[in-house]
C-alpha cells in the first residue's frame, strides 16, 4: 500500500523532470538527466507522507557509453526507498553537488570523483579521497587499464579456457 | 620575556599511531590545545576491493568481504551473500538462517567488545581493555572451532553455510551466554563507572539529531543521538522478524552515550542468540545452488545492520559469472564525516575520544 503512494509521487515527479520510472526487484528507480538532479532530489525529499529524506548512499556507475551517479534514498521514518539515477555525459562528466541538500554527500561525492572522475559542481572540497593527489586516471571506469596488456591477455586466456 | 601572541599549530596525527585504529591520518589545526580545523585523510589501506570484485566470480568474492570490517566478518559475508541471493531469487534453508543469525549476533558482541576496549585504551584504561579482549577471545574460539580461523571467518556461502558447527560449539556458546551479565557488570564497574572515563566522555562531542540525519550517520552513533532506527526492525532481513528484541536508543548525543549504547546492544544480541538457539530446527544448511553462479541481468541493493553502521551492497549483473559493478556502502566511512564537524572547539585529547567512540575500522573505511 505504501509502495502505491510512493509510486504515484514518483511518477508525478518524473513528469516534472522528464524522467523514466522503472521497478527493479521491488525497488523504484527514477532515471533523470544530470541537469535535473537537484530538482529531483529536492522533490523526493519533500514527498508528502512518504518523504525519501535520508541519503543512504551515493556512488558512480560506469554505463560504458555514459556515466551514472546513483542516489539511494531511504527514510528513517518509513519503509520507502527510491533510487535516483542521473545520467552523465562521459566526455564532460559534470553534475550539481548534493551537498547543498545533505551534508552527508561530502565524502561520497569525493569518492565518486576519485573513482569515476565525476565533477560535482558546488562541492566545498572536491579532492581525491583514496588515491593520492597526482594519481592519473579513474580506477573504477571500465576503460582503466589495471595491468600491462600482455599480462592481461595471459590472465584472460586462462580464465576463458577453464 | 612575555608571549605576545600564539601561533596556530599544524599537527599531523597518524597514519602510524596506536589511537588511529589502523591506518587513519588526520591533520589538525590547533590553537593552544583547541582544535580549530580537522581534516581526515584516508586511503592508506585502500585495496580497491570494488575493482577486484569485477574480476572475481561471485563465490570468489566472499573472502574479500571478510577484509572489510574485519572485527565483524560474519556480518560482511552475510550482507554480500544475501545480496546475491536476492538477485538470484534463492531461498535458503531454515537452519542456515538461524546459524547466520547466531554468528552475526556473536560478531556484533565481539565488535562491541572491541569498541569498548579500544575506547578505554585510548584513554589509558589498560585494565578495561584487557577485560573486554579476554571475553572476546571466547567468541574467537567459537569461530575457530567452526571455521578454522579466528578473525576472517568466511563461513557463509551463496545458498547457505559452509559447515555445521561442531558438537563442542553449543556448550561453549551456552556458557558464554550465561556469563555475559557478569561480563557487562565488570565493564560497567571498571570502565563506565569510572570517574575519569565519565569525565572524558560525558557531554563531549555532541552530535545533534538533526546533524546526524543530515550527515547520513547510521548504526549505534545514530541511535545514541535519539533516533530509533535499526534495519533489523525497520526492514527485517533474514529471519529477524521472528525474534523478540528491543532497539536501544539513547538521547545524550555525546561520546559517553555512543559507547554505552553498545552495552545495551550486547544485551539485546544475547537475547536474540538465546531465542535462536532455542528455536533452531534440524535440516540441511545448504540450498540447491548451481555449480556456476550466474545471476540474471539486473541490479539489486541490499543493506544490513552491521555492528558499526549500515552495510549495503549494490550489485549490477550483466548475466555473466562476474559482477559488472559492485558497490560497498561502508557504514563507518560515512560515519567519519561527523569527525571534522563534531570535534571543532574540543581539545586534542577529546578528538581521540570522539574518534574512538565512532568505532571506525579502517578496513571498511578504506575498502
Tell me about this structure.
The complex is a heterodimer of chains A (162) and B (367). Chain A has one domain (2-161): NADH:ubiquinone oxidoreductase Nqo5 subunit (Beta Polymerase, domain 2, 2-Layer Sandwich). Chain A is built from 4 helices and 7 strands, in the order αββαββββαβα. The longest helix of chain A has 15 residues, at 2-16. Chain A is α/β, with parallel strands linked by helices and 162 residues long. Chain A is globular and about 55 Å long. Chain B has one domain: Orthogonal Bundle (Cytochrome-c3 Hydrogenase, chain B). Chain B is built from 15 helices and 8 strands. Chain B has helices at 49-53, 62-66, 73-88, 94-122, 126-147, 169-192, 195-201, 209-214, 220-223, 231-234, 255-279, 331-335, 338-342, 348-358, 362-366; strands at 9-13, 25-31, 34-41, 156-157, 160-161, 298-306, 309-317, 323-329. In chain B, the strands form 3 sheets. A 3-stranded antiparallel beta sheet of chain B has the order 1-2-3. Chain B has a 3-stranded antiparallel beta sheet with strand order 6-7-8. In chain B, helix 11 (255-279) packs parallel to helix 14 (348-358). The longest helix of chain B has 29 residues, at 94-122. The chains are: A alpha/beta (162), B alpha+beta (367). At the A-B interface, strand 3 and helix 3 of A face helix 8, strand 6, strand 7 and strand 8 of B.
List the SSEs and their pairings.
The complex is a heterodimer of chains A (162) and B (367).
Chain A: H1 2-16, E1 20-24, E2 27-33, H2 37-45, E3 54-62, E4 66-74, E5 82-89, E6 94-96, H3 105-116, E7 119-121, H4 149-161
Parallel strand pairs in A: 2-5, 6-7
Antiparallel strand pairs in A: 1-2, 3-4, 4-5
Chain B: E1 9-13, E2 25-31, E3 34-41, H1 49-53, H2 62-66, H3 73-88, H4 94-122, H5 126-147, E4 156-157, E5 160-161, H6 169-192, H7 195-201, H8 209-214, H9 220-223, H10 231-234, H11 255-279, E6 298-306, E7 309-317, E8 323-329, H12 331-335, H13 338-342, H14 348-358, H15 362-366
Helix pairs in contact in B: 3-4, 4-5, 4-11, 4-14, 5-6, 6-11, 11-14
Amino acid at each position: 500500500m505504501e509502495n502505491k503512494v510512493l509510486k504515484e509521487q514518483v511518477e508525478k515527479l518524473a513528469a516534472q523532470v522528464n524522467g523514466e520510472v522503472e521497478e527493479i526487484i521491488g525497488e523504484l528507480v527514477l532515471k533523470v538527466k544530470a541537469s535535473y538532479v537537484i530538482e529531483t532530489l529536492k522533490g523526493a525529499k519533500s514527498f508528502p507522507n512518504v518523504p525519501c529524506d535520508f541519503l543512504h548512499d551515493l556512488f558512480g556507475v560506469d554505463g560504458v557509453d555514459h556515466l551514472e551517479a546513483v542516489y539511494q534514498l531511504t527514510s528513517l521514518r518509513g519503509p520507502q526507498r527510491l533510487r535516483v539515477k542521473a545520467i552523465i555525459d562521459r566526455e564532460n562528466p559534470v553534475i550539481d553537488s548534493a551537498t547543498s541538500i545533505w551534508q552527508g554527500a561530502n565524502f561520497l561525492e569525493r569518492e565518486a570523483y576519485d573513482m569515476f572522475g565525476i565533477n560535482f559542481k558546488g562541492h566545498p572540497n572536491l579532492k581525491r579521497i583514496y588515491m593520492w593527489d597526482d594519481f592519473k586516471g579513474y580506477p573504477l571506469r571500465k576503460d582503466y587499464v589495471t595491468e600491462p596488456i600482455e599480462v592481461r591477455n595471459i590472465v584472460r586466456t586462462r580464465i576463458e579456457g577453464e | 620575556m612575555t608571549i605576545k601572541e600564539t601561533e596556530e599549530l599544524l599537527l599531523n596525527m597518524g597514519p602510524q599511531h596506536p589511537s588511529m585504529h589502523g591506518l587513519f591520518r588526520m591533520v589538525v589545526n590547533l590553537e593552544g590545545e583547541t582544535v580549530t580545523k580537522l581534516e581526515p585523510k584516508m586511503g592508506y589501506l585502500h585495496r580497491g576491493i570494488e575493482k577486484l570484485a569485477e574480476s572475481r566470480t561471485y563465490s570468489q568474492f566472499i573472502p574479500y568481504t571478510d577484509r572489510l570490517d574485519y572485527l565483524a566478518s560474519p556480518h560482511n559475508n552475510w550482507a554480500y551473500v544475501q545480496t546475491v541471493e536476492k538477485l538470484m531469487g534463492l531461498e535458503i534453508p531454515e537452519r542456515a538462517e538461524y546459524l547466520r543469525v547466531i554468528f552475526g549476533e556473536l560478531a556484533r558482541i565481539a565488535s562491541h567488545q572491541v569498541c569498548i576496549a579500544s575506547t578505554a585504551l585510548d584513554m589509558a584504561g589498560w585494565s578495561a581493555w584487557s577485560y573486554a579482549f579476554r571475553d572476546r577471545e571466547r567468541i574467537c574460539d567459537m569461530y575457530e572451532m567452526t571455521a578454522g580461523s579466528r578473525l576472517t571467518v568466511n563461513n557463509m556461502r551463496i545458498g547457505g553455510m559452509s559447515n555445521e558447527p561442531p558438537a563442542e560449539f553449543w556448550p561453549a556458546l551456552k556458557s558464554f551466554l550465561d556469563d555475559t551479565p557478569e561480563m557487562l557488570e565488570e565493564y560497567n564497574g571498571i570502565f563506565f563507572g569510572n570517574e575519569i572515563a565519565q569525565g572524558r566522555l560525558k557531554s563531549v562531542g555532541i552530535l545533534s539529531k538533526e546533524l546526524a540525519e543530515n550527515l547520513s550517520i547510521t548504526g549505534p552513533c545514530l541511535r545514541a543521538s535519539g533516533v530509533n532506527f535499526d534495519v533489523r526492525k525497520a526492514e527485517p532481513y533474514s529471519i529477524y522478524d521472528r525474534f523478540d528484541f528491543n532497539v536501544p536508543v539513547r538521547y545524550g548525543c555525546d561520546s559517553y552515550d555512543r559507547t554505552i549504547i553498545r552495552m545495551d546492544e550486547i544485551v539485546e544480541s544475547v537475547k536474540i542468540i538465546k531465542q535462536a538457539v532455542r528455536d533452531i530446527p534440524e535440516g540441511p544448511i545448504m540450498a540447491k545452488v548451481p555449480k556456476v553462479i550466474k545471476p540474471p541481468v539486473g541490479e539489486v541493493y541490499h543493506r544490513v545492520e552491521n555492528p558499526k553502521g549500515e552495510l549495503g551492497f549494490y550489485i549490477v549483473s550483466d548475466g555473466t559469472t562476474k559482477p559488472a559493478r559492485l558497490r560497498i556502502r561502508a557504514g563507518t566511512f560515512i560515519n567519519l564525516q561527523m569527525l571534522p564537524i563534531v570535534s571543532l572547539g574540543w581539545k586534542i585529547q577529546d578528538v581521540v575520544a570522539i574518534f574512538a567512540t565512532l568505532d571506525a575500522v579502517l578496513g571498511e573505511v578504506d575498502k
